[in-house]
Design goal:
The protein is mainly β. It is built from one helix and ten strands; from the N terminus they run H-E-E-E-E-E-E-E-E-E-E. The protein has a ten-stranded antiparallel β-sheet with strand order 1-2-3-4-5-6-7-8-9-10. Strand 3 and strand 4 form a beta hairpin. The radius of gyration is 18 Å and the shape is globular.
């Protein structure tokens, strides 16, 4: 979800750990997207190379991507997305990948709450989720928090990763803001790599 919106609309400096690890970022392809006049349904479908941004296509198969977001209320949205495609020049089963994404978002007045779950399978199954909350404390000051949980390989019992992110955003105007984030990382290792 976050990678579909421009950077000035983001609550944090970096995308979530789950989104950057389990989704495929930008790619070359063709997409059709739109919405119903009442904005209760957004849709998108596309065919892409599947190799990622700034990379040449290395096989004939393409990735198919689809996304639907339903908004039964102006403040509430539910989304589903799918991506599947073959990533091997030789079309092996290990190179075929699939990803599923489930989203729920609530935005009302100065408050935003969003949760997303992503499952991906290529050589091994991976999944993760995040929960984000943000609120305007004043017209120019926004506070935000996000918790990420990632399982890079579901077959490995000791590789879970978590990130607790906190942030303050100060808006100069609609296009300029100062952002400060502090990240507390939790990994099943002895490494300390918290970030400010």
């Amino acid at each position: 979800e976050a990678q579909l919106f421009p950077t000035p609309d983001q609550e944090f400096i970096d995308f979530s750990l789950v989104a950057t690890t389990l989704t495929y970022d930008r790619d070359i392809g063709v997409q059709l997207r739109g919405e119903l006049p009442n904005k209760k349904l957004l849709y998108g479908v596309g065919i892409f190379n599947g190799t990622g941004k700034n990379l040449a296509d290395n096989n004939k198969p393409k990735d198919l991507i689809g996304r639907v977001v339903v908004s039964p209320l102006p403040e509430l949205s539910f989304g589903l997305a799918y991506q599947g495609g073959d990533q091997s020049p030789n079309s092996t089963a290990e190179a075929y990948r699939t990803a599923y994404d489930v989203l729920i978002k609530y935005e009302y007045a100065k408050l935003k709450i969003q949760a997303e779950y992503i499952y991906r399978r290529q050589t091994q199954p991976s999944d993760g989720w995040y929960l984000l909350a943000a609120a305007y404390l004043s017209p120019k000051l926004q506070g935000a928090g996000r918790y990420d949980w990632l399982e890079p390989d579901r077959a490995v019992a000791s590789d879970q990763q978590t990130v607790l992110s906190t942030g303050i955003n100060y808006f100069i105007d609609s296009n300029i803001k100062f952002m400060a984030n502090y990240l507390i990382r939790g990994e099943e290792t002895e490494i300390s790599n918290n970030e400010f």
